[in-house]
């Protein structure tokens, strides 16, 4: 079991949440003495880590996400035919046999059920992705859900694989994200051009449609003038109350200056940004469709609300008036470490 192959088209840091997730698993497995290979198109690691990985590079072919997706599967299968004596962990809808399939991407079956599904206009695309998802889940020896929500959805949409599904709570990087950052809150605010009077809401995400940015923006005009929204991960036209950052390498500064993190998501298996906000001591408003919501306790670290303007507005107004303790917020998730998560994955591999 000391040889492990990880599958994900993009793996590493600064690329995206699921990609960083797969990257952290690779790093932690290396620390434990495993020989780790990655089948990947784009890899983003510091040089010292990259030297220790065995990289099997795949090139894109085709236009659009689905053709690239299918070509990646084709090339991955060709690579795996030549490999032996390894365990296979997939962070990707790879439709053939794997030891562990990690539910780190939104479940297509659930998204399609949502009335505002982003797949409604792309029925062929939806059918292809749904088929790949079903095969990936069915053919995996073990399915890993990042939080209890994923296992609940497995029971609803894929009941035949419920018994082989386990929950391994994903981790967060507490060295980078922790409540000590709040000590620099006022310094960072001054550096970034915000005043003490501003009430700053942070939104983080690349897939802004699924993560509900438009819903949050509809609420903004109904909030007090001192409320401003900082948007990390997306580009747009900034105004006095709306600040678009695009991609930023200093996201921890924005968690530190933020008074509140809001994610009106349609579905996240377990949003890394939610965990990073909590780790920094920033209260959170999210929906029941964010896997991390099982750790949100009202008047301790935030609010879990339904996806509508009224509920989000009400929760934000409560948060403005409530005094949260950053240390209590951090304590609510301090057990969610990457070491605990990877230990759980290894224990599940041992059962295969």
The CATH superfamily title of the largest domain:
Glycogen Phosphorylase B
Radius of gyration: 20 Å
CATH architecture of the largest domain: 3-Layer(aba) Sandwich
Q: Percent range for helical residues?
A: 25-40%
Number of DSSP strand runs: 15
CATH fold label of the largest domain: Rossmann fold
| Percent in strands | 15-25%
Shape: globular
Kindly provide the name of the CATH class of the largest domain: Alpha Beta
Summarize the helix and strand pattern as letters: EEHEEHEHEEHHEHEHEHHEEHEHEEHHH
Strand line-up in the sheet with most strands: 5-3-1-6-7-8-9
Can you offer a commentary on this structure?
The chain is of the alpha/beta class and 352 residues long. It folds into 2 domains: 3-171 and 337-351, Glycogen Phosphorylase B (Rossmann fold, 3-Layer(aba) Sandwich), CATH 3.40.50.2000; 179-331, Glycogen Phosphorylase B (Rossmann fold). The chain has 14 helices and 15 strands. The strands form 3 sheets. A 7-stranded parallel sheet has the order 5-3-1-6-7-8-9, sandwiched between helices. Strands 12-11-10-13-14-15 form a 6-stranded parallel sheet, with helices on both faces. Helix 7 (185-192) crosses helix 10 (251-257) and helix 9 crosses helix 12. The longest helix has 17 residues, at 65-81. It starts with a strand and ends with a helix. The relative contact order is 0.12.
Keywords:
352 residues; alpha/beta; Rossmann fold; 7-stranded parallel beta sheet; 6-stranded parallel beta sheet; 14 helices; 15 strands; 39% helix; globular
């Amino acid at each position: 079991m000391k040889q492990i192959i990880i599958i994900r088209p993009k793996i590493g840091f600064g690329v995206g949440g699921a990609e960083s997730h797969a990257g952290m698993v690779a790093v932690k497995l290396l620390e434990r003495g495993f020989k780790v290979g990655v089948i990947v198109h784009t890899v983003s690691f510091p040089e010292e880590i990259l030297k220790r990985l065995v990289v099997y590079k795949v090139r894109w072919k085709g236009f659009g996400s689905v053709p690239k997706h299918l070509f990646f599967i084709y090339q991955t299968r060709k690579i795996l035919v030549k490999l032996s004596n390894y365990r296979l962990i997939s962070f990707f809808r790879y439709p053939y046999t794997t030891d562990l399939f990690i539910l780190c991407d939104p479940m297509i079956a659930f998204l399609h059920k949502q009335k505002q599904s982003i797949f409604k206009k792309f029925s062929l695309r939806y059918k292809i992705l749904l088929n790949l998802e079903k095969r990936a889940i069915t053919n995996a020896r073990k399915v890993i859900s990042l939080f209890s929500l994923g296992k609940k959805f497995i029971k609803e949409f894929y009941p035949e694989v419920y018994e082989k599904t386990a929950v391994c709570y994903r981790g967060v990087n507490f060295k980078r994200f922790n409540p000590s950052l709040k000590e620099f809150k006022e310094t960072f605010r001054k550096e970034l051009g915000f005043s003490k009077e501003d009430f700053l809401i942070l939104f983080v995400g690349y897939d802004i449609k699924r993560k509900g940015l438009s819903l949050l923006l509809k609420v903004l005009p109904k909030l007090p003038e001192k409320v401003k929204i900082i948007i990390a991960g997306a580009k747009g036209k900034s105004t006095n109350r709306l600040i678009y950052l695009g991609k930023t390498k200093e996201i921890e500064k924005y968690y530190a200056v933020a008074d509140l993190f809001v994610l009106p998501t349609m579905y996240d298996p377990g949003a890394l940004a939610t965990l990073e906000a909590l780790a920094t001591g920033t209260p959170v408003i999210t929906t029941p469709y964010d896997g991390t919501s099982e750790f949100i306790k009202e008047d301790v670290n935030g609010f879990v609300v339904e996806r509508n303007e009224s509920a989000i507005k009400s929760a934000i107004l409560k948060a403005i008036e409530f005094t949260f303790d950053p240390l209590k917020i951090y304590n609510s998730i301090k057990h969610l470490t990457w070491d605990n998560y990877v230990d759980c994955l290894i224990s599940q591999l041992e059962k295969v």
